[in-house]
Amino acid sequence: MYQYTEVDQKLVDERVAQYRDQTRRYLAGELPDEEFRALRLMNGLYIQRQAPMLRVAVPYGLLSSTQLRKLAHIARTYDKGYGHFTTRTNIQYNWPTLESVPDILAELAEVQMHAIQTSGNCIRNTTTDPYAGVIASELEDPRPWCEIIRQWSTLHPEFAYLPRKFKIAVTGGPEDRAASQVHDIGLHLVKNDAGETGFEVLVGGGLGRTPVIGKQINPFLNPQDLLSYLEAIIRVYNLNGRRDNKYKARIKILVNTMGIDTFREQVEAEWAEIRESDLRLSQDEIDKVKAQFAPPAYAADAADSNLDALLAQNDDFRAWYERNTVEHKVPGYRIVVVSLKPYLKAPGDITDLQMEAVADLADRYSFGEIRATHHQNLVLADVKQSDLHEVWNSLNANNLARPNIGTLTDMIVCPGFDFCGLANAKTLNIAEQINEKFENVDYLHDVGEVRLNMSGCINACAHHHVGHIGILGVDKKGEDWYQFTLGGSSEAEASLGKVLGKAIAADEVANTIETILLTYIDQRDSEAESFLEVVRRVGVEPFKEAVYAADH
Amino acid sequence: MPLIIDRTPVAEDKWITLEEDQAIPADGAVILPLAQWLENRETLAGREVGVQVNGDDDLEQVLTLNGQVELIAVEFPAFTDGRGFSIARLLRRAGYKGQIRAVGDVTRDRLAHLERCGFDALLVPEDRYTPDVLNAFEEVSVRYQGGASITRPAYPQS
Predict the structure, then answer these.
(1) What is the per-residue pLDDT across A294-351, written as a single tens digit (0 to 9) for each?
(2) CB hemisphere CA count around A100 (13 angstroms)
(3) Mean pLDDT by 10-residue block, N- to C-terminus, for chain B (158 residues)?
(4) Which residue in A58, A545, B43, B119 has the fewest CB atoms around it within 10 Å?
């Protein structure tokens, strides 16, 4: 993985000192609340319902074991012994004090980490595929490009006060595990007719109050022009995006208002001015960054002839193998997904001890690296087949091997009203209710791939619009109610879910999901037809009839 | 109001800023709103003139000020309004050599970014100025990006 140069290290060290001084000035009353708010947000610090929340950047989801141990140390020392992984593959701490944040940042800087631009109206952490570099279908590893974007966007002097937050995702192949089509900019590595690799560029995707799928602005961008093109898009946005209404300030609104063609013309005009500049990446620079993501030294003898026997002997191991591991592009290796969705725990939460256990596993079995995923799980990307049984045992012992990846209980859930100052409704109690109802793993495996995303308010941090089943918590006269959408997806053929009907009472959410799943089983042509495929084929009507039947 | 030019506080400021409906004095260096300047540009020919613009003004008109006035004041109506950063970048890119002055919500934690975008003059509100604001310029010395004066970005170094 990428290792900081002296320049990179100096930047995070200087940033820690700068933020320490900003905190000091705020506490001394020299910095007005409003202004400190913008500054602390650009460093990932929110003031929430219970306490401040610090969001630490995990650039494109990649962590070393050393970094994960540091995160565990921070959880233990400055928080209540746990952290929460987010859909932007960052980690949040819910209980640090405002005064301790400069010290936390200094600890992070020791392991080449920071909280720069994890919030605020600036360019956020660039996300990518958690299977980058290890999945056979990809054209090219997207992470070097993410690192180049990380550097270019870090403390960009012109783009620190954009109309609104700005998110970029990069994918390396046809499968989209980064929700790139609901990002402000989505970059897809593609091949053109001449066989060259470049980027398809999407712009103006997003969720929140106005969910939109991103539109293609450029079918093929030469990779050397990546930064000038991004700069052109964001400059046009910075100058023209709305600033009078924060709900209309994202680039998606600008693109929709101008129309993609007019927007493209403006971007191209600006791009023409800066394309031939020092923003052009030289092949030498690109190669230097790529070299830092070179594949690890895979063993030729990783395949295990004993694996089939173990799988045949042990149903639990087999269930885990089938659900929580993925085919690796190198024979003999397997991608292991570490489930952060154990029974009756908040989705995405992880304790200090679990972090250390995963760090140890990474050191022993996966080249010392860990990835965080958009679905709020972790990944050990390079595990030998012959090590799988031991890895499973160890994950099991740490409550990290629930065989539920891609199933209903592998939910994306925001922290909701229990923690978040923006939320209208609770989510964690509903996640528990769903867990209790659907504890039976065999049943979930029969239902197959279902993506359930639940947000506690319209800001849609849990991407409910693109859940196969989306749930949005709403407040009705002081009570929590839940609106369902069906048929959303953030993957290759992204789509926004359609509303099922009127909101459901809190205690009926799990029962409603059961009705929906039974309707799916009833409607499917065969077990091979997934939930999403059925919803796309038959529409929401049969589900609506089943769920609201009692009302007729 | 404390004025910083090229990182140095200056006591003397010859420029007088006029409000929209204020009469133009017979002599002296004046800064007018863009609309006023467009109206009076012929009568002002030969005088020391500056123009104040903000993000609501037509960008094409702002860029045509290049070569016509000696000072362009870019207004930051709120510290969250970042349009002025891009306006300064575009003016410098167009070759504007005069003073670009940041006015309005111009405070310490933005000074370094303002300078890198091409502002050489920074008008800091009286109640937000202490001598230590001058430390702001060197708090972060690493520049991953090019800027108005140094175009070569730092990322090739890594």
Answers:
(1) 999 999 988 888 999 999 999 999 999 999 999 999 999 999 999 999 998 889 999 9
(2) 16
(3) 96 93 91 95 92 97 96 95 97 96 96 96 95 94 79 57
(4) B43
Q: How far is CA B70 from CA A15, B65, B99, in A?
A: 36, 9, 7
Least Cα separation, residue B73 to chain A (angstroms) = 17
Measured between beta carbons, which residues in chain A are less than 8 angstroms from residue B132? none
CA distances from residue A202 to A248, A280, B98, B127 in whole angstroms, order as listed: 19, 20, 38, 45
Between positions 85 and 124 of B, the ones with CB within 8 A of A are: 85-87, 89, 93, 107, 109-110, 112-114, 116-117
Q: CA-to-CA distance for A338 and B13, rounded, in angstroms? A: 64
Q: Which residue has the higher pLDDT, B145 or A495?
A: A495
Taking contacts as CB-CB distances below 8 angstroms, the residues of chain A near B129 are: none
How many angstroms separate the CA atoms of A21 and A4, rounded? 24
Please state the φ and ψ torsions of residue A25, each to the nearest 5 degrees: -65, -35
| A89: nearest Cα among A322, A376, A495 | A376
How much is the pTM?
0.95
Contact B86 A285 (CB under 8 A): no
Look-up of token digits 């053109």? A192
Residues 6+ apart with CB under 8 A from A269: none
- Within 8 A of A151 by CB-CB distance, chain B residues are 144, 154-155, 158
Helix axes A65-78, A101-110, angle to 10 degrees: 160
Q: What is the CA radius of gyration of chain A?
A: 23
pLDDT digits (tens, 9 = 90+) for A42-84: 999 998 777 789 999 999 999 999 999 999 999 999 999 999 9
How far is Cα of residue B24 from the mean position of the Cα atoms in its chain?
A: 21
| Helical segments of A154-281, H only | 226-240, 251-258, 260-274
Torsion region of A204: left, alpha or beta (phi above 0 gives left; psi -120 to 50 gives alpha): left
Spatial neighbors of A283 by CB under 8 A, at least 6 apart, are: A224
**Per-residue tokens: A16:** 């820690």
Report the phi/psi class of residue A477: left, alpha or beta, with left for phi > 0 and alpha for psi in -120 to 50. left
H/E element holding B67? none
pLDDT of residue B145: 85
**Token digits of residue B39:** 């109206």
Q: What is the DSSP string of B94-156?
A: TT--SEEEEEES--HHHHHHHHHTT--EEE--GGG--GGGGGGGGS----SS--SS----SGG
C-alpha A338, offset from chain centre: 15
A334-360 burial, b at 16+ Cβ within 10 Å, e below that, comes to bbbbbbbbbeebbbbbbbbebbbbbbe
Residue A504 contacts residue A512 (beta carbons within 8 Å):
yes
Model confidence over B17-45: pLDDT tens digits? Answer: 998 888 999 999 999 999 999 999 999 98
CA dist A449 and A326 (Å) reads 14
